[in-house]
Amino acid sequence: MKLRLHFVVDPMGWLCISVVFGIWLYNTFFIPKLVLLPHYNEGHIPWAIVVCYYIASALCIAALFRASTADPGRLPVDPKIPHSEREHWELCNKCNLMRPKRSHHCSRCGHCVRRMDHHCPWINNCVGEDNHWLFLQLCFYAQVLSLFTLVLDFCQYYYFQPLTGLDQKFTTRHELALLRVSALMGLVMFGGMTSLFYTQMTGILSVILKLLPFFFNYRFGSKRSWQWALAEVCGTRWKPLQASHHFRTHV
């Protein structure tokens, strides 16, 4: 099942996601220019470190794009409600549309979202059933990239050998200030993403623990697995979850 593109018209959200993109662009440009490429050219570090940093950077921006543009689980205007599930639906008093239980109305987006967790201004999108796993993926990749950046900033002054082929360009003359800004950004991003990722994973694990008794129940002749419990939280867009989750509410 393909991810549907979803754009939210919110100037505040555009500002927040622009800040995140600016931080990514700053570090993706200055860390290789000031640290990685000069030390690689002088033989101080292997090429694998340079490639790994670019891969982490690419994964991070790809996750940001996917999380910010993926449909979080927006309900259609005229949902097709199976007869057997009508008792599990209710009327939203804000948009006057039928929605399954555990759905919430987002005032920023202006519609109801299945299993809405929260509206995140930093991706300018809701976090719901269909993009929760993408949001977790973004948090993880952002942690990796920011930690990678912090380690390189530290190594530049306390571990790497001094560079011999320095020029007098602006970036070289202001290297200390530029890397201090990079380290500050990395520290803020790593602290924020780690806290958010920990909160999200704690909530998911608590739900999975509550669902543990159901793992031993039989339905349609098979046991429910950990993928079913994870799909209950993160939705079914992730392919490994699609195969094991048979109980999604129809809309």
Structural class: mainly alpha
User: How many individual β-strands?
Assistant: 8
Q: What is the average per-residue confidence, as pLDDT, rounded to a whole number?
A: 77
Shape: elongated
| Poorly predicted residue ranges | 218-223, 238-251
Strand content: 5-15%
Family: Belongs to the DHHC palmitoyltransferase family.
GO molecular function, one term: protein-cysteine S-palmitoyltransferase activity
Subcellular location: Membrane
Pfam family, one: DHHC
Short descriptors:
8 strands, elongated, mainly alpha, disordered C terminus, 9% strand, two-stranded antiparallel sheet, 7 helices, 251 residues, two-stranded antiparallel ribbon
Brief sketch in words of this structure:
The protein is mostly helical and 251 residues long. 54% of the residues lie in helices and 9% in strands. Its EC number is 2.3.1.225.
